[in-house]
């Protein structure tokens, strides 16, 4: 789908991948390491996945969380799937948020979800959040790709 920002991504934008899914560093990270697990082909809903694809998607999510926990020296993380706009999904392409967490990274540990949805401003997970420049996003992606290789995830 041409208008989908995730469909426009290429192998160079991924820092971790499986056969049908890939991991991107979020262009609007809530916290350092905030990443997205996406299908490589356009799928809007979790319900479009076969059981085998669902298992692959979840396993890549688990491996992403493991990698992020190692890189960011923590054992805590959040992950979320927002299905449809009513649930806060801003890009109509299935994606799982994986966010490494550390003690004190937010005033209240549950604040990450309000920041994801931007509830305080009325903007749900939109372009209202800070966005990384293409240069910084590329540097972070390359750093994560190198870490994935060093730690045996690729």
UniProtKB/TrEMBL annotation:
Pfam families: HIT. PROSITE patterns: HIT_1, HIT_2. Residues 1-108 form the HIT domain. Keywords: Hydrolase. The keyword Kinase does not apply. The active site is at residue 95. GO terms for molecular function: hydrolase activity. A motif (Histidine triad motif) lies at residues 93-97. It comes from the Bacteria. This is Diadenosine tetraphosphate (Ap4A) HIT family hydrolase. It comes from Hydrotalea sandarakina.
